[in-house]
Structure formats: structure tokens, C-alpha cells
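Thread: "does anyone have the structure for this chain?"

Original post by V.I.:
We have the sequence but no experimental structure in hand. Need at least a predicted one for the grant figures.
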Amino acid sequence: MDISLELRNNLGEKLLVNEPLKDHTNFKIGGPAKYFFTAATADELVKAYQVARELKIPVIILGGGTNVLVSDQGFAGLVIKVKNQDYKIDGLKVVSDAGVNLGFLVQKTVAVGLSGFEPLVGVPGSVGGAVYGNAGLPGAVQGFIGDWVKAVTVFRENKVVRVPAAECQFAYRDSLFKYNSDIILSAEFELMAGDKAASQELVKKYISARQNQPYHLPSSGCVFTNVPIVDASEIKQKFPQEEKLEQFIARGQLPASWLIDQAGLKGKTMGGIQISGQHANYLVNVGGARAEDVVMMISYIKQQVRDKFGIQLQEEVRYLGF
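Reply from O.Q.:
Generated one for you, C-alpha cells below.
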């Protein structure tokens, strides 16, 4: 069987061959996808996925290209880029396709006097990716996207299924969708009636608070999740002079960026990858970086933090093609 011909016959001229994935990720890193298809609708997304399964070729769903690291060798299968971008606002109810840009949706809800999404304004990527990883702002009241989800529509076992929020298993940087093969098609949210001017001020506040994040350089976003504080007394013994410790304990988390900074790693460079001097939980591509550089840097950071503080960092970045 000629796989290329079969894919072309089913997916048409939008099918690309040997498409550089670095052009589709915020990191600007990654080898080619053997096959690449942009799905402009949920139907196209489902069809492309079904075709790949029928042809028994590996398939990856790619959203906004944040929080992912693509192998230097690329991906020897079909990458489906999600670009369905319809949304509807009806009273407090918001229904959004997975491919809608999250920052765009935040602005649209604020513009019609809805409140709730303001802490998400600086989160890069798409609605689908945000739901998948329960993106949000630690420390903000109801600061995660999962706090506002009513239901998520997915493609599961050849059926379109509506998953109620109670079944989505949202937690810090986590959801059900990380552990199954559901393909997120859209999400339904219920926001609050708000004051447009007040929401706009909140948006400005959250944007300003993120000014220390190096958005001007290619990166995947935050690389590591914050560390849950299980034993506050143990943490106080490890960091007896830290002024912010009570604040961290109240939140129940040690910021990964703070731990990396405490380890003296800001500015460390390997190949084309650097630990940002602005925000230590960002690895930035300072030119010509390879996925291999990122993997080595992640391993080095984990080893340094573990050796110095006895704390194990966990990545939130998703590895593709490894």
C-alpha cells in the first residue's frame, strides 16, 4: 500500500510531506513530520485521525505548539494541527473549538462583560491545549481553565462524546485527557457576569505580572511544574532564611522557577538553549537550539535541584517524536 497516496486521496491537497515541525512550535525546534495536515474543522480533525488509524500509522495531535518539545528526528507519522476556530458566547455560556487561541477568547469574553478568564490572558496556546493541561495561574482564585469548564466534547473510540466537568479530573496542570486517547474537539464554559472596566483592569494587571517572562524569545513556556509542599517544617529547615517561604507554604507549592534560581542556574547555557535570566522556569532558544540541547538542560536542572535541595522537579513539557 502506498501510504502517501492513500493519505492524499483521503485528505486532499492540504496534506504536506516532510513538513518542518520547528515552524509549528513556540520553541522553533524539531525535525520534520513525515505527514502533516491542518484540520480547519472538528470533522476534518476526526477524519484525519480515523484515516491514520485505518492505515496503521502513528498520529500526533498538535495544538498551539506551546509546552511541547519535538525530537530532532521529527515524527515518522501524521501530525494533525488543530485549527478549528469557531466560538459562541450566549449569556454566561461560552462554547469554543479546541483550536481557538486562548488569549483571543479571554479578550472576547471580557469585551462582552463576562468575568472568570482574566487570569488566563497571558497563557499561550489554544483552548484545547489549555484544557488538556489545565493551564492557568497558580495563586489566582479560580485561576485555571478547568475551574470554568462545564463539559468537554471529545472524539473517543469512534464516537463524539460529551465529558462533564466532574469526569475531567482537573488538577494542578493535569486532567483526564493526559491519560487517555481522547481528542479534544471543543469545550463549554460557564463564566460570571462581570464589570467590563474592572475585568479590563484585571487583564492589565495579569499581563503586567507576566512582564518578567521572556516572550520575546522562542520557548515552550514553563518547563517544570511547581512542587507540592507536603511537610512545611521540612521546607523551613531547607530554606530557613527565605522571606517568601510563608507565602509559598500558604499556596502549598514551591515555585519551580524559584528553586532553579536558588540553585544558581539562571543564565546557564547548553548549545543554543539558555535558562532565562528573566524567569528561571523558561528555557529559551537563543539561536540554533536542538531538542538534544533541551533534553540535556532539563536533565542538568533536575540533577542540580535534586542534589542541592533533595527535591525532584517534574516536567510539564510534552515530548513528541522521542
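V.I.: this helps a lot. The chain has a mean pLDDT of 94.
O.Q.: and The chain has three domains: 3-82, 87-205, 214-320.
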